[in-house]
Structure prediction request, 464 residues.
Amino acid sequence: MYKLFKYTLLAFAVLLMASCKDDDTAIHPEKPVSDYEGFTLTWADEFDTGPINLDNWVYETGDGTSYGLPAGWGNNELQNYTLLSENSGIESTGDNGVLYIRATETSDRVYTSAKLTTNKLFSMRFGKVAVRAKMPEGKGLWPAIWMLGDNRDQVAWPGCGEIDIVEVLGQEPSKMYSTLHYTDGDNKRNSTQGSHTLASGSFADSYHIYTLDWTPEYLAFGVDGEEFQRMTIEADMKEFLRSFYLVLNVAVGGDWPGSPDESTTFPQTMYVDYIRVYTKDGFEVPDAPTLDIEEESVGQLIDASIAANGIQNGFDDLGPAKVVVYGAGGEPTIAESDEAIDGDKSLVFDFPGGNWGGGYLELESPKDLSVYTHVYFSLKPSTPIADAEIKLESPSTNAAVYLVNYTPTTVEQGFLEYGIPLTDFEGLDISQLTIPFAMWNPKDADDNFAVSRLLIDNIHFGTE
Prediction:
């Protein structure tokens, strides 16, 4: 009986140890020791000890404006990314550890998080990526493990290409998405997406292993050893024949997940146990295709000198400027027109409707315009617009007003002149203005994205 009890106790101990090892709800479950047959490990971060290894990772901080994006990282996200330990670090569990990226609500609807990339430190072209991670959950949470083309300083997104290994919308924690974004043969934004839904549980309940297998012919996405989506690299997808770097972040809000609501609790954390990058044994990496900026640009290449057509002649306080467009298919085509009320030409924003988008003037360097009280500009739409968002930005602040709240004055040639008090742009740092004029999302009387060719002229700042 004693012997039976002893063996029973031993069996129970072995079972208990095995269950602890497989308990994926723990912060740091046991790491697997096996690699992938036919592949050699070439880069990894196991996150076993802190602090975060800055030989591997660089932080991107703020709201995106420091990186040439509209505030909200181009997706109307709500968080600011920080360097704070509240938002990222290594949680140690003895000899091991995990990376945490934590979204917090610092006050009512003010959110912080972290974004880490290997930009300029490590990039790859073809091979396998394996990431073991556990996701946050809650309405408005948007964790992502993804990649960007490392030529993004040469060509605007999505011409650099984007590979989303895994994204989860916090309100659908049992479903993950894997997506490719690129510029297609018609110079339009395009994407290919696959998804996978767990049979039970959620990606926030336990750790899962997310994989990307990347060859010159395809990109295949898998979870826990099962491939669920294979995407062929077509002739107009040359982005995916060039090098990419890694990105980890947890966003809050944005166009896709929507904003947090009363059901969302904070803080919410994405844990990453490891990231491992492998090359296929015996594979000879072919030469990357030459980058053709025009081929990979959405819409049109915009001559920087065209911005001057919208600025009042002789108003030199802005200095050199360029025109930038951004959106999800609703961004305007840029041109110039001989119809003008100031100088020989005006600036044209030709909005196609159908989706969100906008265009803006970006200054070469920040300007102090605090001596002025108003911003002035004149518009002439080809079809009536009921409203549009007018936004001004500095490196650290941005603010918007809506045209529907202002009554213009009709001036010559049918142009409508607006004068908007700078105090209406609440919280804006006028002493470091970088975007002195932006127009987003013109709407028609039915609140649809308007199809309209807008002439813009005589932008300047003044006193009443």
